[in-house]
Write a structure and sequence with these properties.
20% strand; binds zinc ion; two-stranded antiparallel ribbon; alpha+beta; Homing Intron 3 (I-Ppo) Encoded Endonuclease, Chain A; 4 helices
Length: 112
């Protein structure tokens, strides 16, 4: 498609940065997390927006790790508010502020 805007640029049009959280204003999935379609030329490859932001700014997420939202805001894509942790750790923490964590993890596994 002529004039196609790269996903890496398009992504940030859906982010509204504040002094704390960076709010995702694009599409969201069933679990309440932001979703971003990285597909080129009409292709579709949806990823979680917070994971995409992390990989753009910090690099690849180690295999098997999930990103825990330290701020508890699922639509936040600020890498300073995210921490790669094991699923075990995420579940342990999830009991504190995310009762539906088991469902979220299933969806995350399916997506990647
Ligand atoms: Zn945040």
């Amino acid at each position: 498609m002529p004039g196609y805007e790269p996903a890496s640029i398009r992504f940030w049009r859906y982010v509204r940065k504040t002094e704390s959280c960076w709010h995702w204003i694009g599409a969201t999935g069933d679990t309440g997390y932001g979703r971003f379609n990285t597909g080129v030329s009409g292709g579709h490859r949806a990823v979680y927006s917070h994971r995409y932001a992390w990989e753009r700014l910090r690099g690849p997420i180690p295999v098997g790790l999930v990103l825990d939202h330290l701020c508890g805001n699922r639509l936040c894509v600020n890498p300073d508010h995210l921490e790669p942790v094991t699923m075990y750790e995420n579940t342990r923490r999830g009991n504190r502020h995310r009762p539906s964590i088991a469902v979220d993890q299933v969806d995350e596994l399916r997506l990647f």
